[in-house]
Amino acid sequence: MKKKLIAGNWKMNGSAASNEALIQALLAQSSGWNCLVAVCVPAAYLAQVRGLTQGTGIELGSQDVSAQESGAFTGEISAAMLKDFGTRYAIVGHSERRQYHGETDAVVASKAQRALAAGITPIVCVGETLAEREAGRTEEVVKRQLAAVIHANGHCISEIVVAYEPVWAIGTGKTATPEMAQQVHGVLRSQLRAATEHADRVHILYGGSMNAANASQLLSQPDIDGGLIGGAALKAPDFLTIIAAAG
Ligand code: PEP
User: Fold this and answer.
1) Which of 126, 213, 203, 204 is nearest to 170 (CA)?
2) What's the pLDDT band for 155 if we cut at 50, 70, 90?
3) Which atom of ligand 1 is nearest to the CA of 165?
4) CATH for 5-246?
């Protein structure tokens, strides 16, 4: 059975001092980990966190990647540059980027493609808004979002990580019940099975107010292969409890 993956999404939080304290606190407890662990840090801190985590059980991730390869795209960071920093994962299509930066399914698919081409595993986020859930459109929305990535990356789709993150659960303290999450994860697994014979290799993470108290129930669902953790990834004891629940 594949190991679960617990990835922290620090979002736009941290400082040189607090990053170091957080990583040291995690590493102090890392000897018994039985799952994959990653931290997706602000781009400005990739070099610092790489220095702190290189050769440890913590993998480095970015929170975004450019859909362009290189050139006149001020402010963008290419997949090749991220690779230079030892980046193993790149979050693409987080709902905050879809919402505040107008990222479409097509842009998210291109970002996943750039990451894969550079040897970086994209963590592709999908998820419905509250209005979409209440209108009974959850399946349609997540399938459309994932279909765009499958369409653009069919030949290597088993190399991605998927994160189901219901938008209404992100940063709100409202979590999908384990049954609600499993139901959507099952839909996503079936969609991947139709695209690749290696669908069972793909990690499908749950994200949305996963915390120390609810992690073990969510992670015990058959198609929940780990978590993408926002707020709770900033507190070492909480993140460590989630890691232990995944082991
Ligand atoms: C996220 O931003 O990916 C996330 C899941 O955030 P939180 O855990 O804070 O809901």
Assistant:
1) 126
2) confident
3) 5
4) 3.20.20.70
Q: How far apart are CA 210 and CA 201, in angstroms?
A: 22
Domain boundaries, the chain: 5-246
For the chain, the average pLDDT equals 97
Residues 5/203, Cβ–Cβ less than 8 Å: yes
Cβ of 8 below 6 Å from ligand 1: no
Give the residue among 55, 63, 57, 109 at the shortest CA–CA distance from 89.
Answer: 63
Cα torsion angle, 146, 149, 154, 155, sign: negative
- Distance from the alpha carbon of residue 205 to the mean position of ligand 1, in angstroms: 12
Question: Residue 245 has which token pair?
Answer: 């629940």
CA angle 149, 175, 219 (to 5 degrees): 70
Q: What is the pLDDT of residue 247?
A: 87
Q: Which of 6, 9, 100, 168 to mutate to test the pocket of ligand 1 (most atoms within 8 A of CB)?
A: 9
8 A C-beta contact, residue 165 and residue 129? no
Closest C-alpha residue for ligand 1 atom 7: 230
Closest ligand 1 atom, residue 163 Cα: 3
DSSP 3: P
Report if pTM > 0.85: yes
**Could you tell me if 106 and 148 are in contact, meaning their C-beta atoms sit under 8 angstroms apart?**
yes
Cβ proximity of 42 and 61 under 8 Å: no
pLDDT of residue 214: 97
Q: Which two tokens stand for residue 212?
A: 């120390």
Question: What is the Å distance from ligand 1's center to 11 Cα?
Answer: 9
Rounded CA gap, 133 and 181, in Å? Answer: 12
